[in-house]
């Protein structure tokens, strides 16, 4: 998957190498949660009982790898600073493919103007509420306060990948980034 390849390579370049047998865990999970990132162990949990299709698993892996990338590159205070969590959830919803047109159509959510941003905002709030015991108002306020900066933070993709083709282009650009910068 080009999304995962790009994130794994970016993490490696940031000094956080990921080992499949150490940093990924398949488990049965409660409710309808598909996955999670455990910052204490730097481990991505995939909920094997709630993931039924390869495309869904790819999105979950990408979403959680974005959290792992944020954990690697920034000093994220996952538990005490809801704005940090909100920022990573915004980035994950924006960059993982969670809000692609096809996924939104499958959810029976249609819209044209500003729909991607609305989807990212709603999914970030939903994710915060799923992992923290905070009020909906607290989650909304945190997302609103950091939305613009975090929505526009496209690292390591450099663009919002709306499809696998976009993700492949972003991966190719990422691989050539050092060669380009060396010529400046």
UniProtKB/TrEMBL annotation:
One GO cellular component this record assigns the protein to is: mitochondrion
What PANTHER family does its record include?
MITOCHONDRIAL INNER MEMBRANE PROTEASE, MITOCHONDRIAL INNER MEMBRANE PROTEASE ATP23 HOMOLOG
- Signal peptide boundaries: none
How is this protein named in the record?
A: Mitochondrial inner membrane protease ATP23
Instruction: Return one GO MF term.
Output: metalloendopeptidase activity
* UniProt KW keywords: Hydrolase, Metal-binding, Metalloprotease, Protease
Q: Belongs to which family?
A: Belongs to the peptidase M76 family.
Q: What class of enzyme is it?
A: hydrolase
Q: Does the keyword Protease feature in the UniProt annotation?
A: yes
The UniProt record lists the EC number as 3.4.24.-
Please name the GO terms of the biological process aspect recorded for this protein, alphabetically: mitochondrial protein processing; mitochondrial proton-transporting ATP synthase complex assembly
Q: Name one Pfam family in it.
A: Peptidase_M76
InterPro entries documented for this protein:
Peptidase_M76_ATP23
